[in-house]
Design a protein that fits this description.
The protein is 54% helix and 9% strand. The protein is mainly α and 168 residues long. The chain has 2 domains: 47 residues; 106 residues, no CATH class. The protein has a 3-stranded antiparallel sheet. A two-stranded antiparallel sheet has the order 4-5. A hairpin with a 5-residue loop joins strand 1 and strand 2. It starts with a helix and ends with a helix.
């Protein structure tokens, strides 16, 4: 029996009890909906602790797989629901209905583009120019950037930004 299956079997009673608690919370009439949602979220967090990791849907994408391995099962489920790797290798934000790709360019003498073994750094003006040269667009505004970051797995905004940087 696989280790993940054994973990599910060991915790089946816990998960059943959590499910009953969730139904009981939903049926409470004297409790505000926000408090119900908070209680249910706490119970679901406990449920995810009793489950095994989800299999990575894109093991061939090195960055996706590397990030995936360090996420909790709940974060993995969020990532699987929100972020996909398309056949052309782009990162697709499912709820935004948009695909994103890395912007890359060779280093230049003006030092507005610096390429290292792992990353390429751009000044804002150089990034805009390279986007125009490659027929791509940068994120348009602060709200679009915030929405983009919000779809990444993580417990805080800072953690979501960190996971975005790791994926890209």
């Amino acid at each position: 029996m696989a280790k993940s299956d054994q973990k599910k079997i060991e915790h089946v009673e816990d998960r059943h009890e959590i499910a009953q608690d969730i139904v009981a919370i939903k049926n409470l009439k004297a409790v505000k909906q926000t408090k119900k949602d908070e209680l249910i979220k706490d119970l679901l967090d406990e449920k995810y602790k009793t489950q095994s990791s989800i299999e990575c849907p894109y093991p061939e994408n090195e960055q996706y797989l590397e990030l995936w391995k360090e996420l909790t099962p709940r974060e993995q489920a969020d990532m699987k629901a929100n972020i996909r790797v398309s056949e052309d290798g782009k990162i697709e934000m499912i709820k935004m209905h948009k695909k994103f790709s890395l912007l890359a360019a060779e280093s230049n003498e003006e030092k507005t583009i610096i390429k290292t073994s792992r990353y390429t750094y751009f000044t804002p003006k150089a990034a805009e120019q390279e986007c125009n040269n490659n027929g791509k667009k940068l994120l348009e505004n602060f709200e679009e950037t915030r929405e983009f970051i919000s779809h990444f797995p993580g417990t805080s905004h800072q953690n979501k930004i960190h996971n975005f940087l790791r994926l890209f």
